[in-house]
Amino acid sequence: MRKFFSLLAGLALSAALLILPASAAELPFSDVTADDWYSDSVAYVYENGLFLGTSETSFSPDATLSRAMLVTVLYRQAAPDTQTFDETPFTDTDALSEEFQTAIRWAYANNIVSGTSETTFNPDDAITREQLCTIIVNYMREYLELDLDAYLTELTFADRESISDWAADAVCIAANLGIVNGRADGDAYVFDPTASATRAEAAKVISVEYEAASAIQAGGTVETTGTGTSTGGTSTSGGTSSSGSSGSSGSSGTTTTTTYQITVDSSENGSIASSHSSAASGTTITLTATPDDGYVLDSVSVTDSDGAVSLTKADENQYTFTMPADAVTVSAAFAVDDYDADEAAAIAGYIETMLDNYETYISLGNLTDDDVKACADLLLGTMESALDDYNNGARLTRSYVTETYGSEISEFKSLYSALDSDQKTAFQICVLYLETLRHLEAICDFFGVDYSSIS
Q1: What is the average pLDDT across 334-362?
Q2: CB distance 263 to 239 below 8 Å
Q3: What confidence score (pLDDT) does residue 148 get?
């Protein structure tokens, strides 16, 4: 399956781990305020390099968006591994910038667009609302390879008969996903399919599309109960409700799931990214850390208003947690990489020798006490697991052993302390059979066990 926004190698997010800023207050645009219904979406597309301003201080939220620009925004969001694609049959795109031309070639190659005719794309035309839905849904289906059939129901917009046949399914899916909504027309709600989409609407569409795709990609669903109605701009985000003008994400005929903000603090000597910028309670969130050269991940924390949120280590630089019904803040710390590959290799070699000698010692019938054997089995079993990790690519360090096998080491110490003096002597004789004294001291130190306490 194609990479989701170039993300995740197991969900391996890299360049396209798109994170929503904490607020829109830091935007440079004088025409976007925190009270605008599209402010968070503009912050999202600007912060992640999907949209630029129309000037250093203007976003022009009410201006239209061209067909070429929409495709380019999706291309930036997808961040494909390759930038080389076959030529299109379009004869009206040669005057565009190289990025726009590449984006159109990418979209054509991935069945996201097909042009306005066999040889034209009309790149400068303002994107219409039904074209916007079609391209967005094609992107989700064809490029992200998401199954959207569950969101194909019956259109209820008052003007549904005016929606082009080729766009009807896409409009229905986009509405059910909360990506687009209707516009008030008296007592009815219409879709207005041929109206031009504004830059503000497009920003909102892109941000909601990302959230919906993230939820589906993670195995979740976007809960809806109907289409074709709108509250004129009420949206639910970050656990709060805000109102704006028509065209935002809320709808009175659609049941939406409340999502909570995920804020990622900036870090020195590395970065950490989240698979979601916001999520509903119960969603599994993946965090991926990227240390700078010469540094390693030292710690990761997630906190909500009640304190620390429990984390599960998925990989060396990857953690997961279950989203609470609260906004959370993610932080990471990085430390100088003092990994000693020679020491790790030496410890691995000592462990191999100990395991081989322990097998021989057991086969000779020299260890008959069950309690002593349980103690030795736990210690050697822990070391064998660490050796397997090392052979599978793990960086064998003291901190890795402590973090990964701390509970086993604590259990060993408890078992050993419960032995009587004769049993401890039997254990010590066994250990001395396994390796040289110098190597035993090095291994015990590496695993956080005081050798003098077991000798």
Answers
A1: 91
A2: no
A3: 92
Say how far residue 40 (Cα) sits from the centre of its chain. 19
Determine the pLDDT at residue 221.
66
Say if residue 222's pLDDT is above 90. Answer: no
For the chain, what is the HEC assignment? Answer: CCCECCECCCCCCCCCCCCCCCCCCCCCCCCCCCCCCCHHHHHHHHHCCCCCCCCCCCCCCCCECEHHHHHHHHHHHHCCCCCCCCCCCCCCCCCCCHHHHHHHHHHHHCCCCCCCCCCCCCCCCECEHHHHHHHHHHHHHHHCCCCCHHHCCCCCCCCHHHCCHHHHHHHHHHHHCCCCCCEEECCEEECCCCCECEHHHHHHHHHHHHHHHHHHHCCCCCCCCCCCCCCCCCEEECCEEECCCCCCCCCCCCCCCCEEEEEECCCCCEEEEECCCEEECCCEEEEEEEECCCEEEEEEEEEECCEECCCEEEECCEEEEECCCCCEEEEEEEEECCCCHHHHHHHHHHHHHHHHHHHHHHHCCCCCCHHHHHHHHHHHHHHHHHHHHHHCCCCCCHHHHHHHHHHHHHHHHHHHHCCCHHHHHHHHHHHHHHCCHHHHHHHHHHCCCCHHHHC
Give the residue-averaged pLDDT of 1-25: 40
Say if residue 315's pLDDT is above 90: no
Smallest CA-to-CA distance from 18 within 164, 246, 211 is with 211
pLDDT, greater one: 233 or 28: 28
Residue 189 burial (CB count, 10 A): 25
Q: Which pLDDT does position 25 carry in this prediction?
A: 53
* pTM of the predicted protein model: 0.50
Evaluate the CA torsion angle 98, 100, 106, 111 in order and state its sign: negative
Cα 167 to Cα 195: distance, rounded to the nearest angstrom: 14
CA 381 to chain centre: 34
How much is the pLDDT for 339?
82
**CA–CA distance from 9 to each of 72, 212, 286, 389 (Å)?**
24, 20, 11, 19
Give me the count of residues in the chain.
455
Token reading at 289:
């850390």
Strand-pair partners of 280: 259
What is the per-residue pLDDT for 102? 95
